[in-house]
Structures are given as C-alpha cells and as structure tokens.
Amino acid sequence: MSPRRGRTEEFTSYYGRPILKEPTWQALDIAGYIFAGGLAGASSILAAGAQHTDRPGLERSAKLTALAAISASVVALVHDLGRPERFVNMLRVAKPTSPMSVGSWILSAYGPLAGATAAANVLGIFPRAGKAAGIGAGITGSAVATYTAVLLADTAVPTWHDAHERLPFVFASSAAASAGGLAAALAPIAQGQPARRMAIGGAAAEIALSVAVERSGNLSAETLHEGRAGVLLRLSKAFTVGGAVGLALGGRSSRGVSTLSGLAVAAGSALLRFGFFEAGRASTRDPKYVVVPQRERLAARQEAAVGADTMG
Amino acid sequence: MSTTQLGMPTIGVPRKGFFTDTSLCIGCKACEVACKEWNQIPADTSLKLTGESFDNTSSLGADTWRHVAFIEQKVPATDPSAHDGVKWLMSSDVCKHCTHAACLDVCPTGALFRTEHGTVVVQQDVCNGCGYCVSACPYGVIDQRKEDGRVFKCTMCYDRLGAGEEPACAKACPTKSIQYGELDELRERADARLEELHERGEEGAQLYGRDPEDGVGGDGAFFLLLDEPETYGLPPDPIVTTRDLPAMWKRAAGAAASLLAGAALVFWGARK
User: Fold this and answer.
1) Which terminal residue of chain B, N or C, has fewer Cβ atoms less than 10 Å from its own Cβ?
2) Helical (H) or strand (E) element with B34
3) A2 inside 8 A of chain B by CB
4) What are the pLDDT digits (tens) for A244-288?
5) Is the dihedral of CA B47, B50, B53, B56 positive or negative?
6) What percent of chain A has pLDDT over 70?
7) For residues B130-140, average pLDDT
8) What is the rounded distance in angstroms from the CA atom of residue B152 to the CA atom of residue B115?
9) Confidence category of residue B11, pLDDT binned at 50, 70, 90
10) Under 8 Å CB-to-CB from B66, ≥6 apart: which residues?
11) If you average pLDDT over residues B80-85, what whole number do you get?
C-alpha cells in the first residue's frame, strides 16, 4: 500500500474548485484507442515473428487482429476530435514537441504497412513484399504501442505526468499481453506457444509495473486506488492474473481454456488503460493533486536555497 | 536549444504583456464584460449563481477569457470587545501567455502559434478540436467550446494589438489594475509596486509569474497577489511538462525496444 494513501493534507484552494481543466477526451475513444493501438502494434510484432518461423495460422490471425484494431482505433481518434472533418490538419505539420503530432505520423507509417501485409497474406499476392511490409509493421508497431504513454504523460494531468518514467513500460507490457492473449484465443493451439508466452510474460510485466506506479508514493497515485479507476484497475488485475494462470496451466491442452484465458488477458489489458485514463481525469478534478505536490516542491527548493546560503 | 518549441523566439519588437495588480482590483468585472463584447464571446446563458461569492463565472474557460475571483477573508479583531473584520481579495485572471507554452508545444496542427507580440493565439480556422492543449495547460486556462468543438482562449486582443491599441480589458479597467505594455517595463513597474506594498506592511504581497526562471519560463501575463497563489485558484509552482519530453521519448524508445526484444524471446525455442 502506498505510504501516501489516506494521508490528509492541509491546503488552500479557491472554493475547492479544480485548477486544471478535465481532459475533453471520451474514455471510449481515447482509452479505447490506446488499448486498440497497443493491441495492433504488438500483434504486428507477433505476426512478424510468426511469418519467419513458419506459423501460418498464427501469422494470419495476428495480422488480421492488427488490421482490425488499428482501423477501429483510427475511427475512435477521428471521432474524438471536436471537428472530425479537420482530422487531416494533423498532417500539416510535424512537431517533435507534440506527442500527438508524432503519433499521427507513426500511425500514417504503420497503418498502410499493417494493411498491406494483412491484404497480401489473405489474398495470397506479393508474398515477398507482404513479408517486408510485415517486418515494417512490426517495427513501427512497437512505436504505436508505446508512444501513447508519452501522449498521456506530456500533460499537466497529475496522475499521468507523475507516472511518465514508467508509463511507456506499463503500456508496452500491456500491449504484449493483449496481443498474445488475443492470438492465443484465435490462432491454432499447435502454433500458439509464442502467443501464450507473450500473453503470460506481458501479463506478469504489466502487473508488476502497474503496481510499481500505484505504489510510487506520489500523491496523485491515490487516484489509482479510488473510485471508478480503482474498480477498473482491480478488475484488470483479476482478469490479467486469471487469464495468465489459465493459459499457463491449460492453454496448450484445451481449445476452450486457451480461448477464454486469452480473452481474459486481453480484457485485463483494456481495463488497465481505462483505469489509468479515469485516474488521470479524477486527478484534475481535485485541486489537492496540484497544490500539495507543488507546495512541497517549492518548500524543498527554498530549503535547498537556505542550505546553500548557510554553506556559503 | 530549448526543449520546448522554440521557447521565446526573437520577435524583433519588444514582447507585450499584462501586469495585473490585484491590490488595485475593485471587482467591477468591467474587464470580463469588455472582453466578451470586443471578442464577441458567446454569453453563458445558464445564468447560474454560485451562491458562494460575487463570482458567478467561476473560472477561465472557452467563453470566459477574463475571470474576476472574489475571496472573503476574516480579519481577527485585535481588540477582544470588537467584531472580527472582513477583507476582500479580488483578482482578474487571464491566460498567462507563457514563455514556454505547453498548449503551443503539444498542438498537433500548429493551430496555436506565437505572435509577433510574443503572445500565444489559436488560429480558429486550423484547430481541429483534438483537446490536447486543454490537458497540457498547467493553469487550466484553455478549453473546448462543446457546441463548436474547437478550443478558445484569450488572444490578448490580437486584432487590437496589431492596430496599436491596448487590449479591451486593460482599456476598460477603471483602476489600472490591468496594465498592458512592454513586458520588461511592466516587470520594473511591478517590482517597484511590490516594494511599495511591502513598505506599507502588506506582507502577503508577492509577484506571480514574474520570474523568467520559473517552470514556464515566466508569464507574459503576470500578477501582483496579496495572498498565496492557490488562494486565487492558481497553481503555486506550475511547470511546462514538455520540459520532460526528451526523457519521456527516451523511456518510450526503451519500452519499444524491450517489446521487440521480448517478442524475439517468445519465439526462442518455441515448439511447433
């Protein structure tokens, strides 16, 4: 348990009103996008491995999963814009200071590659070009699965920014868990061992890293335990652990166990993203998460300045 | 080079700004009204009363570009037979036009830009309503107009500045609480005013957003406050999070590499 949890801080505010604006983003669109993007990116990596180790069933299911997930996520992204008809304005500049701009360019590289490799596989045309596109999709997919952590962390939202060092690793492992889980559910069992391993390894890392964020000691981390976010994250752990244990014990022997457990791991990954999303929103609604840490930072700086003076 | 986009480019002409001296504010809200009228900002038709104070606009937002805060504080009586007194704090808040502006840094379309006056303005014909700036602003200033989809905030009356006029709020302010001018000159004026108030025994008087070394590189619109910033609903030590962006990109690259390496491992020796 976080040492911060339950601590009551004295702080001043303006009638208790929030200082920050709550994100305008809809959970289904943006948390959903982050999950689907992670699923797509990691599925492409899995597909690239499958295509070079002669696992055609795994290859096809992972490539189709990637294409379906990235298509859904682009729809969600456009839908979330206040002016969807202007979505193409994202591509009028390339700004390294804007994770959303960088992400738009990553997506515009990844999307066509994922589409091309899936199309070549299903239609049985251009096998060599299709495999080359598969490699490209795997490499750019690793960026799709992780840049979303920077997207959230590069904001004034306390819970998201405070987690900026660990969040890319949380999202990467969660992406691996979801892609492995879904492939374990969809691909032939005989070819599915890499998928099951990816799901189990991803799930273990996801749990360890997200617990590390929850116990970071930052005041904002308490939003990960409370309210709707707390419920989502507890559910996430139950699904992830249950699914991973199921895959480890019966994933190889039973189609039914493999399917259900794989879907559970993927659901746990989705719940994790929704949980982090909701926790961030909650941290903007209470001025405590802005005022108290900033006051502590100021006090520490003043103390250091006084210390430097007396050392003089 | 600064990690934030261009930081404050050399703009050729002196940077313009606001100095809001809240010790002179009488809470008349002429600034709110003048801003609404000049910038043709939609009315808040809900006509809600907060019931807490004379502040019924509550906060800055897409339709409130100047916001007057009202704080009622008890002043304990020194003579035990007398009643406690009351002190009013009033302050007209506005977009800070940061030197390192998070909204501008994260805007993926380039709709937010730095003007020739050193201010930060949204190009309304480019904004696609992604909402990233809303979450990035450490002051909670910029917001989305739901019925429109785009984001809006103070432009420091960009159109008036171009014509050599001062912004509508500063023009309307009857007590010179809102002062517009060249930022360097405003800073000198603020320093002198602070000294004067301290001499008069106003111990809580402090400048907010004046320091070019602070977490946002100093504000283009800064304040003289009579109490701590959070009393007025301002963050006490805001930072521009794009400051940490190079570190964040490195962590993301590390995570992406780990993901690829992990995926290679799961195929290692796997049976078929």
Assistant:
1) N
2) helix B30-39
3) no
4) 999 999 999 999 999 999 999 999 999 999 999 999 999 999 999
5) negative
6) 96
7) 98
8) 16
9) low
10) B31, B32, B35, B60, B92, B93, B94, B154, B169
11) 88
A33 touches chain B (CB under 8 A): no
Residue B255 marked ligand-binding: no
Please list the residues that pair with B179 across neighbouring strands: B19
Q: Which residue of B has its CA nearest to A85?
A: B128
In this prediction, residue A310 carries a pLDDT of: 72
List the single best residue of B107, B130, B142 to mutate versus A (max A Cβ within 10 A): B130
- Please state, in angstroms and rounded to a whole number, the distance separating the CA atoms of residues A140 and A1: 37
Report the pLDDT value the prediction gives residue B47, as an integer from 0 to 100. 77
Query: What pLDDT, on the 0 to 100 scale, is given for residue A117?
Result: 98
Please give the pLDDT value at position B12: 62
Check whether B154 is labelled as a binding-site residue.
yes
Q: What is the torsional sign of CA A93, A95, A101, A107?
A: positive
User: What DSSP letter does each residue of chain A carry, written as one string?
Assistant: --TTTT-------STT--SSPPP---HHHHHHHHHHHHHHHHHHHHHHHHHHTT-HHHHHHHHHHHHHHHHHHHHHHHHHSSSGGGGGGGGS---TT-HHHHHHHHHHHHHHHHHHHHHHHHHT--HHHHHHHHHHHHHHHHHHHHHHHHHHHSSS-HHHHHTTTTHHHHHHHHHHHHHHHHHHHHS-GGG-HHHHHHHHHHHHHHHHHHHHHHTS--GGGGGGTSHHHHHHHHHHHHHHHHHHHHHHHHTTT-HHHHHHHHHHHHHHHHHHHHHHHHHHHHHHH-THHHHHHHHHHHHHHHHHHHHHHHH-
d(CA A116, CA A122): 10
Given a cut of 70, is residue B121 above it in pLDDT? yes
Q: Which residues of B touch A169 (CB under 8 A)?
A: 251, 254-255, 258
Complex prediction ipTM: 0.94
Query: How high is the mean pLDDT of chain B?
Result: 93
| More confident call, B49 vs A167 | A167
Does A279 or A310 have the greater pLDDT score?
A: A279
pTM: 0.94
Task: Name the β-bridge partners of B222.
Answer: B19
Chain A residues with CB inside 8 Å of B126's CB?
Answer: 86, 89, 92
Q: Is the Cβ pair A99, B144 closer than 8 Å? A: no
More confident residue, B151 or A310: B151
A154 CB within 8 Å of a chain B CB: yes
Give CA–CA dist B222/B208, Å, rounded: 6
Q: In sequence order, what are the residues at sequence separation of 6 or more whose Cβ sits closer than 8 angstroms to the Cβ of residue A192?
A: A58, A183, A184, A251, A252, A258
- Closest-CA residue to B264 (of A277, A56, A139, A33): A139
CA dist list (Å): B148 to A289, B129, B131, B145, B257: 30, 9, 12, 5, 41
Q: Examine the pLDDT at A3 and tell me if it is beyond 60.
A: no
